[in-house]
Amino acid sequence: MAPVFSHGDLRLYLLRLLDESPRHGYDLMQALSDRTGGTYTPSAGTIYPRLAKLEEEGLVTKTVDGRKTVYAITDAGRAEVASRADDLQGIEDGLSDSIRLIADEVRGSMREAMRSLKADLAAAAQADKDATRERAAKAPQPERDESRSSSREQVQRADALVSTFRATVRADLRTHVARGGALPATAVDELERALEDASRSLTRALAG
Fold first, then answer.
1. In terms of residue numbers, what domain contains 69?
2. Which of 15, 13, 27 is nearest to 73 (CA)?
3. Where does the pLDDT of residue 163 fall: very low under 50, low under 70, confident under 90, or very high at 90 and above?
4. Would you say residue 183 lies in a domain?
């Protein structure tokens, strides 16, 4: 979920970044992506016209350094940043909210995937137990070979479930990060706890 810069907010935030240090255009785009946790990555067509307007207003200057054009804030630009400190704080708060929202979405997706995996594994274990009881009730002697064969089939089924889950989660996470999404450590911690819960649930199902 990308943060939405209201009219004039991006212009002001560019001044804020340049107030920290001179930067070239790509560096500004990367800084915006970093500051927003990857939830907003502007294009060159968005950044450079605004920089040109800031230069026209006398708020920034530009110098050519090799193949790069470096932008620096002027005294007039610093004065605007200082006079609009409250507006900048509001922008920062909005970006922080966006980062928290996307982190919550990632954790929610992981929890849902883990609930599905736990349910599938528990169902597979219960189905194997039910099948074993049914065969034992029908036959005067345990059909050990058939039971082992059925168990091997269920192991293969469980392997397939785990492999599918791993591939799905891995693909979702890589796609999310590749698109600039944030992946907080707390989300991975949640995944680790959910996997441990799934393992314990399966152990209880098999023991029961």
1. 9-83
2. 15
3. confident
4. yes
